[in-house]
Write a structure and sequence with these properties.
The chain is α/β, with parallel strands linked by helices. It is 24% helix and 26% strand. The chain is built from 8 helices and 24 strands. Strand 1, helix 1 and strand 2 form a beta-alpha-beta unit. The structure holds flavin-adenine dinucleotide (FAD).
């Protein structure tokens, strides 16, 4: 028997075992997945919990429910990978051998990495919404908050779902307007980037939307520490940003065991080839989803599109054949913009988010980089698709590789790419 070991039973790991169990012969391949938690969290839902749109129970289900028959689920925390002996050790001392290893342990917010963040004001006037517990605590806080200076803040990139802090800001604007207290709330967006988003066309659109909503942007801000008593963010350039309520996205990092195993970069992301997701060091280790260092967005959509390509390539790789499909960094995210509307962005390694229609050129129904109610419904529908289609490894009729059909290409890009 050959052994496939998958580390992490979140979005990517669950999709991988579902896809591969039906493809790998049961009398030849044993599949095991290791996961530290009993609960699977639908993380895009964390955005809606603080505003009461989703109840906490609507974003959780048991991990086991999504692991197919014929896959062993081991509950435990991974301590180390030893690539020399093809062994993984868990914190409780259990040793698991493998022939092929897939690392899908994601990325985790690390408030411990910014001095002062977890001081006396953590979960009082300093909150996050990137964890289940954080989103629930922030929801409680917002119910009774009387207004003041609300600062939405990103420590550093990359973060998972890089549009989520913008969405939070748009939704906060809409939430306080609905409550009739918008004039008592000063909204400030503090980012390490020089604009609202990582890519120029989207940054211009999304930055304009912040301006329309009367949100002050504090760009190029690299936080050095937080003074919880004075309630200020202090930057490396000595700028100070005061807050009454801080909603921060802490530094995101890959799992510590990745560093202990000598497989990671400086943020513990597994070093892989960006087209095949194969480790640059070992030819029987892959990393999928947020755990890898590919220069794509850290998003569930990226995990999904890359699993499509990975599955095809993996089946060839184990037969000694070349991996003949390349992942192009395809990402596809709905962006909530408040008042029951949203945008959609679709991009990859080479092409930034552009305006247009998706998935059918000229028809949509989704608007690229344009607000619509249909986009908002798309975002809400996504939760059902996640639980019932994506996680279970069922196909959806969208190509894994990004398509230019329906996109409006700016003139300068025609020249640059020769298209
Ligand atoms: C607020 C928010 C909004 C988002 N919105 C969107 C969106 O709109 N669209 C979108 O596409 N994506 C969105 N995302 C991102 C999306 O949720 C992630 O990109 C996706 O879940 C990544 O999947 P993954 O399998 O790589 O990691 P995860 O799903 O996080 O899974 C990693 C798993 O590994 C386990 N693990 C980690 N370390 C260990 C260890 N040492 N031992 C054992 N187990 C371990 C964890 O418990 C976890 O279950 C959002 C994320 C957040 C936080």
């Amino acid at each position: 028997m050959k052994r496939l070991l998958v580390l992490g039973g979140g979005t990517a790991g669950t999709m991988v075992v579902n896809r591969l169990r039906s493809r790998l012969a049961r009398d030849q391949w044993q599949i095991t997945v290791v996961e530290q938690r009993e609960t699977h969290y639908y993380q895009p839902g964390y955005l809606f919990i603080p505003f009461g749109t989703y109840a906490p129970r609507e974003v959780t289900k048991p991990v086991r429910r999504f692991i197919p028959h014929g896959v062993d689920l081991v509950r435990g925390e991974i301590e180390r990978v030893e690539p020399g002996t093809n062994t993984v050790t868990l914190v409780d001392g259990t040793e698991l051998g493998y022939d092929q290893l897939v690392i899908a342990t994601g990325t985790t917010p690390r408030p411990d990495q910014t001095p002062g963040m977890q001081g006396g004001e953590w979960r009082k006037s300093i909150h996050d919404f990137y964890t289940f517990e954080g989103a629930v605590a922030l929801g409680e806080k917002l119910k009774t908050w009387r207004g003041g200076r609300l600062v939405v803040h990103i420590v550093d990139m990359p973060i998972k779902c890089p549009v989520a802090p913008l969405e939070f800001t748009f939704l906060a604007d809409s939430y306080f307007r609905d409550k009739g207290v918008r004039d008592q709330v000063e909204l400030v967006y503090v980012t390490p980037l020089s604009g609202a988003f990582t890519k120029p066309v989207a940054s211009k659109h999304l930055g304009g939307m912040l301006e329309e909503r009367n949100v002050t942007v504090e760009p190029d801000f690299i936080v050095e520490r937080i003074d919880p008593d004075a309630k200020v963010l202090v930057g490396y350039d000595e700028r100070e940003v005061p807050f009454d309520l801080l909603v921060t996205v802490p530094l995101n990092m890959g799992a510590d065991f990745v560093a202990r195993s000598g497989l990671g970069d400086e943020l513990n992301y597994v070093k892989v080839d960006k087209h095949t997701l194969l480790s640059t060091q070992y030819d029987n280790i892959f990393a999928i989803g947020d755990a890898s260092n590919i220069p794509a967005s850290k998003a569930g959509s990226v995990a999904h599109f890359s699993v499509d390509i990975f599955t095809h390539n993996f089946m060839r790789h184990i037969k000694g054949l070349s991996m003949d499909e390349e992942f192009d960094g395809h990402a596809n995210c709905f962006v909530e913009s408040g008042d029951g509307k949203g945008l959609l962005i679709d991009f990859n390694y080479e092409t930034e988010p552009l305006t247009g229609k998706y998935p059918l050129p000229g028809v949509g129904p989704f608007n690229l980089l344009g607000e619509s109610k249909v986009n908002h419904w798309g975002k809400l529908m996504f939760r059902w698709i996640y639980w019932h289609v994506l996680l279970r490894g069922r196909p959806i009729p969208l190509p894994a590789r990004m398509s230019m059909a329906g996109k409006n290409v700016p003139d300068d890009q025609f020249v640059a790419s020769g298209r």
